[in-house]
């Protein structure tokens, strides 16, 4: 059987174009291209690795504050960031994930460590942070993940809630999709 | 939410998804993204998928596993992505988006939202788009 042509496909979310009326489409396009290039580097040559490619691409998007992951994550009702990530490889159906982490720069990389270094598939919150410390993943101040556009987005959301509006009213009036 | 799927020169597939959730979510809320079969699924015998959209609805239809199942049944990645997302739209009234790649390197992307940022790279050629038709 012929070897497949190494291929990478990535997405930056179906809701990223609706932040409080201001949309940096050029920035999003630039960010998605950069992530694609960074990921694809891991697919060329003898060391071609799909798992390395998807991790690198997602890390790039997590580091870009325009995307809803990592730095730039949307905010909870408490004004905090809670991030989730998962990674899976198809050879042995292995997978690892983390949820409700607040201060891990690249949750997808921590998810990969869950897959590779534990018997579990999903670690949450404090447990994920404890594991991160054990495997030497650097924790950052939670405030560093919070961006001004996301603060504004939460303010708008809370304002609409206070006004007794329903979610769908909010969607219509702000053009916001309540997507992950 | 962001995500990636890939197939390498050795025929291995992989998928990843990462998210910051939704604005104003309850503390402790977990959507589809970190759940196998929802935010991602992959199998070297078939291909890989990553999803985006309303997490609660994606979880209810196990979107990524559903999508890969359609590929197992012989659909192309493009047809499988469309069929899985249209099913979620029909049954849960929820739009979303997804990407998929087969073990052979065929790939697909689709969204029934207003927009989804995506990119693909194959044979060194990068393509990307935001709105339907791009």
Radius of gyration of CA atoms of chain A, rounded to a whole number: 18 Å
Low-confidence stretches of chain B: none
Query: What is the residue-averaged pLDDT of chain B?
Result: 97
* Number of contiguous helices of chain B: 3
Q: Give the tally of β-strands of chain B.
A: 8
Broad structural category of chain A: alpha+beta
What is the topology, as strand order, of the major beta sheet of chain B? 3-4-5-6
- The shape of chain A, in one word, is globular
Can you write the helix and strand succession of chain B as a string? EEEEHHHEEEE
The biggest beta sheet of chain A is recorded as: 3 strands, mixed
Span of the ends, CA to CA of chain B = 20 Å
Q: Kindly provide the radius of gyration of chain B, computed on alpha-carbon positions and rounded to a whole number of angstroms.
A: 14 Å
Describe the structure.
The complex is a heterodimer of chains A (180) and B (134). Chain A is built from six helices and four strands. In chain A, strands 2-3-4 form a three-stranded mixed β-sheet. Chain B is of the alpha+beta class and 134 residues long. In chain B, helix 2 packs across helix 3. The mean pLDDT of chain B is 97. At the A-B interface, strand 1, helix 1, helix 2, strand 2 and strand 3 of A face strand 1, strand 2, strand 3, strand 4 and strand 5 of B. Strand 2 of chain A pairs antiparallel with strand 2 of chain B, so a sheet runs across the interface.
Could you outline the blueprint of secondary structure elements for this entry?
The complex is a heterodimer of chains A (180) and B (134).
Chain A: E1 7-11, H1 25-40, H2 50-63, E2 83-89, E3 94-101, H3 107-117, E4 122-124, H4 125-134, H5 148-162, H6 167-174
Parallel strand pairs in A: 3-4
Antiparallel strand pairs in A: 2-3
Chain B: E1 2-7, E2 13-19, E3 40-43, E4 47-53, H1 55-60, H2 63-72, H3 77-92, E5 96-102, E6 107-111, E7 118-122, E8 125-129
Antiparallel strand pairs in B: 1-2, 3-4, 4-5, 5-6, 7-8
Helix pairs in contact in B: 2-3
